[in-house]
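Example record used in the benchmark description.
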Amino acid sequence: MDLSGRLRRLYKLGLVAGSRGGAALAELAFTILVARQLDLMEAGHFFVALTVVLLAAQASRAGIDFAVTRILAQHLARSEPHRCAPDAALALVAATIVSSLVCALLYLAVVSGLGQALLGGAGDVLLLLLWASVPVAITYVTAEALKGLDRQILSQVATGTVTYLVAAVLVWIAQPADAVALAGLFGMASLGGMLVGLVLLALALRPLGRPHWGEVALEQLWSLLRQGLVLSPYRPLTLAANWMPILLLNTLSGAAAAGVYAVANRLAVAISLIGIAVEAIYAPRFARAAVTPGPAMPLAREACLFAGAATLPFGAALALLSGWLLGILNPDYAAQAGLVLVLLCLAYSVNAFLAPLGTFGAMMGRARLLNLTALAALAIAAVGGYALIPVWGAEGCALVLLVVFAVRGAMLYRFQRGS
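Model output (structure tokens):
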């Protein structure tokens, strides 16, 4: 890549990271307001329930998100823009169907008593919050469609900015007294985020010309679902491995420890915004590389180095300021979560460096490799959680997440380095 190409890439990264930064700031504002409004127990109940809802929304993607990104990017590469709108619409229909089924199954599991046994007091909160997984899942797929259209800035805005911004405003105005009231407010915010995302997608599709709706057939919906289903285990297994530690922490150490970890985690996850921006920029290029002759792995290495170099200073600064940031939220957090936040900063820095390898594999269609890698990471998270959390509590939970990120990334590189 020549100098002008590097400068353009850096400029685009700045724009995308800035838009993603807006989403991170909205999420940070929401976290701060929740931490100030609720005590550790109530905050723990809400964030555990929210973790399950986000996991349900991620599972509801069913690989549809990867499929729609790849399909739309390749339509544009083949000069077939008229096919983008119908396939984007089919992806949204598929996401609605799958997310509704997942929500219904989880609701039945919770009311049957299984959820109460696993989640304790967070189970009651989950019952009121679970329906939000449907609009959140639709918002996720909308953002991936925008990514496939090379509209990364709009994609980052659609991903979470509006939802968390509206949620933060509602918390500031309503000042909920407990996690149950907060669950209702977040559900309302998720609907607002979904509607804004759909409007942004419609605006992005408009310049592509008149779509050929007459070509849409039921067989295309099944084809999209089949392309997604082969990758469907990857996202939920990956997210389950990421979130397994906090769920085990809630079970083994209690809601107060989970609340401390959850607040530190929501601060540290801001490190991911640069890595997410890099993945957003490179995902359409990975998809086009899949139909272009020549080796593609150099492009993946370039993305990893780009993400790592851009993330390292931010991660180091956040780790150094961990005590001060936690003190702003609540003095109790500063006393209990300092080392947790430092470990999480290291974990998310490692993840930002290696995460583009997962997107690369998805765009290249390597479903089996991704699914096996994600399953191995989940096993490591479960074994590590049961081994370390009873001994070190929230610090052990953060250490498990670091190991999961490092091992998963190393495996993805090892088995794709010859591409």
